[in-house]
Design brief:
Mean pLDDT: 91
Structural class: alpha+beta
Distance between the termini: 56 Å
């Protein structure tokens, strides 16, 4: 289990979007949490996956592949990204079961190192089924973060009102004051 703090500016999004948010900009410099196994350990711990999955080179490679597939879909198009996401989904399946508690579904993987990548890709399918129009990219021109809009009226524009939303407001205010 990683004891390192998660350095990302936006956490807590659904797993698929949280994987996309392992890349972000900090003061104009691109950051990548999945640059090394230590960052992978932080991501696994942040998402409660560190007990079942080891932060090794195979998991890291598979997660990077899933991140690129999701990026192609979210920032590109379903047509562009679908084969890439399907390639990740091909490494696992849902097994339906009947337990003492009732119906249950469990993910199964021939190779457990695909687990976190598969779970993120599967989560994206769930988001598409739930509300595809609520999967958003931050509206700030320099921000690369994504979020699932859970606002009541579905009008959230910023990854964070405190960060990107405030920067946009300050920028508009500066432009208005400069005109006067």
């Amino acid at each position: 289990m990683s004891t390192a703090r998660d350095p990302r500016p936006l956490t807590g999004e659904p797993l698929a979007l949280d994987l996309l948010n392992t890349r972000w900009n900090k003061e104009g410099v691109a950051q990548d949490l999945l640059a090394d196994p230590e960052g992978l350990a932080v991501w696994l711990a942040s998402n409660g996956l560190d007990d079942a999955h080891t932060a090794d080179a195979d998991v890291l490679r598979h997660l990077r592949q899933a991140r690129e597939a999701l990026k192609a879909t979210v920032d590109g198009s379903l047509a562009q990204g679908a084969p890439l996401v399907d390639a990740v989904l091909g490494h696992g399946r849902i097994r339906a079961r009947l337990t003492e508690e009732g119906a249950a579904e469990e993910p199964e993987f021939a190779d457990p190192s695909w687990g976190p990548a598969w779970l993120a890709a599967r989560n994206y399918l769930d988001l598409l089924a739930q509300a595809p129009d609520r999967i958003r990219s931050c509206a700030h021109e320099t921000c690369v973060l994504h979020f699932f809009d859970t606002s009541r009226n579905g009008t959230r524009r910023w990854c964070s009102m405190a960060a990107c939303g405030n920067r946009a407001k300050a920028s508009r205010h500066y432009a208005r004051s400069k005109e006067n």
